[in-house]
What does this fold into?
Amino acid sequence: MRTDVILTVSVLALILGGCGDNSPAVNKLAIEKSVQDVEKGMSKALAGKDAAAFASNYAADAVLMTPGMPPMKGTDGIREGTSRMLADPNIKLDFASDRVEVADSGEMAATRGSYTMTATDPGAKKPVTETGSYVMVFRKQKDGAWKAVLNISTNEVPTVAPPAPKAAVKKKKGKKR
It folds into this structure.
C-alpha cells in the first residue's frame, strides 16, 4: 500500500510540475543590447542624413514627439519630419541612453537618455545648441526585430522667448519757434 501512495504522489508531482509556466527565461541583457544597437543605428542614420534609414527603426504605428513640432506618426510621418529636420545644413544630433528597462515578458523595452542637438535658429539664422532628455519605448516585432513605438524628447532649458520689439524712440518735443 505504501508503494501505491508513493507512486500516486510522484505522478501528481510530475503532473503539477508540468502545469507551471514553461516559457523560456527572458534574456534581459541580450534585449538591452539589441535595443541599444537599434539606437546606434538610428544615430548613424542621422549622422548620414538618411531619413529613410532612421524611420525604418520605427514600427508602422509609432509616434515621435519632439519640441516645437507636431507629433510625427507612422514611419512615413517620421521619415517626412526627419527629412525636413535633416535639410538644415547645421543639424547635428547626438543621443545616448543611460538606462534600459526590459519588461519581464521580454516583449517591450524602454530607454532613457540625453541628447544634444545643433540646428539653425530660424530667426537669427545662426546655429544654436540645445540639450535635453528623451524616453523611447521599443516593442519586439513578429520577426524578432526591435522597433521604436513611442519616442518623446524634452528640452532641459526652457525655450527663451524672443526679445520684445524695441519701443519706438519718442521724439523729444522741440521748442516752438
Q: What stands out?
A: The chain has a mean pLDDT of 86.
